[in-house]
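Complex 391.
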Amino acid sequence: MNMSSYESLTTGSAVSLVKKLGLFAESETLSSREIGDGNLNYVFHIKGKEKSVIVKQALPYAKVVGESWPLTLERADIENRALRLQGKFAPDYTPKVYYSDKDLAITIMEDLSHLEIARTGFINGEDYPLIAQHTGEFIARTLYSTSDFAMGPQEKKKLQNTFCNPELCDITEGLVFTDPFFDAETNDFEEGLRPDAEKLWQDSNLKLHTAQLKRLFLTSGDALLHGDLHTGSIFASETETKIIDPEFAFYGPFGFDIAHFTANLFMNALSREDSRREPLYAHIVTVWDVFNREFTRLWKENNTEAFAKTEGYLEWLLADIFEQAAGFMGLEMIRRTIGLAHVKDLDGIEDEAARLQAKQRSLAIGARFVKERHQFTSADQLVSAFQEGLQ
Ligand SMILES: Nc1ncnc2c1ncn2[C@@H]1O[C@H](COP(=O)(O)OP(=O)(O)O)[C@@H](O)[C@H]1O
Ligand SMILES: CSC[C@H]1O[C@H](OP(=O)(O)O)[C@H](O)[C@@H]1O
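Predicted structure with adenosine-5'-diphosphate bound:
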């Protein structure tokens, strides 16, 4: 990467760029707005008379913290290459990439503004009937297709080498797998939650299980993960689903992405009245059904592994993925409650007592998922455990 040619875009220079690239005519009048609401990057929405595009640019630091937290620009290249691969394996669920520039750390992609960020929609009471079906297919296809089973170990290792992503993994290793379990400076929670946080910090059994899951994250290289598949990374409508923002992509454990999706559904459920939780429970069951079915279909259709037909191997693997995912799910719930990066589903609960109760439940249910992950064998059991946590 040539740092000397990097400059951060403005609404004006983003317009000049898309015209220079020939995406719009020089003479066309374009509107340009910075719409990024994520933690890390600039996102410009550029609109002409008949079409529009998104220009996403990485900053040399984490936007949420500022220049005191320098962060590699390489993440834009990772995101661009991950989007292109995901577009190959799951085209229906991935935005089209029109252009990318490694030095400027930009990706120009399809404008998905006709859809809504699923987290926002869920908070506003939307249910998105197809989101679990689509997300389950996306996860199964992108993971299976980049695994040893589909690619063979040689080709897979070559691809794996190009998705090392140490700095973004370091963020996850710190913010998800470490800091929430200690009295760390990055943690962020209201004083009312302190006794619950301290209880977690003193729970050596929880720490042991977290250490085991962290090791899995550090050492497993099953497949190319999205790496940050929460409901804020999903655009949705009644009929469409698109997964954005794979800058945390790297080779990691099979269970990670599905765990983050389901954890974020559970956290939205915590913010809803009981009578409105059912569609989210159904999504959790569906995403697992679809993932298992699609993974199995791909396994049978294309498998380079000599043991592929060995009785019990696929069933053992799916059970193992489920068990690890139950643990990762619990960790995501805990970190989104007391760690640095929260979710609007919980933070946005206006009534203080209700907000505190929802967060206490998130911590307790999350801790149970982590510690008892070996005991869960189906999504229905996860939903039942969640419901017990509401009593
Ligand atoms: N392809 C797109 N089409 C329309 N809006 C987008 C697109 N990509 C991102 N956005 C908007 O920008 C916001 C931040 O994008 P995201 O990729 O999540 O950034 P970050 O990496 O900073 O989290 C999204 O929540 C969405 O509102
Ligand atoms: C300092 S990055 C914190 C947090 O932000 C990322 O999420 P987002 O998609 O909202 O940018 C990721 O989950 C990181 O853990």
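The mean pLDDT is 97.
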